[in-house]
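User: Can you recover a sequence for this backbone? Please restate the input before giving your answer.

Assistant: Of course. Working from this structure:
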């Protein structure tokens, strides 16, 4: 079996002055809403949007 190689496609840089990644920042970055609004949205589960979380 031939060994597979991966091409580097970008550079990962860590900024020493970067702010920490908090749950609030993550919720805003991923879901576009505050953590409080995300929790409220999950609890309401309108239209079964989060049904997979409740199984």
């Amino acid at each position: 079996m031939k060994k597979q190689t991966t091409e580097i496609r970008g550079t990962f840089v860590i900024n020493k002055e970067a702010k920490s990644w908090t749950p609030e920042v993550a919720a805003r970055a991923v879901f576009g809403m505050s953590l409080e609004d995300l929790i409220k949205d999950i609890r309401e589960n309108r239209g079964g949007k989060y049904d997979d979380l409740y199984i």
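That completes the design. The longest helix spans residues 35-44.
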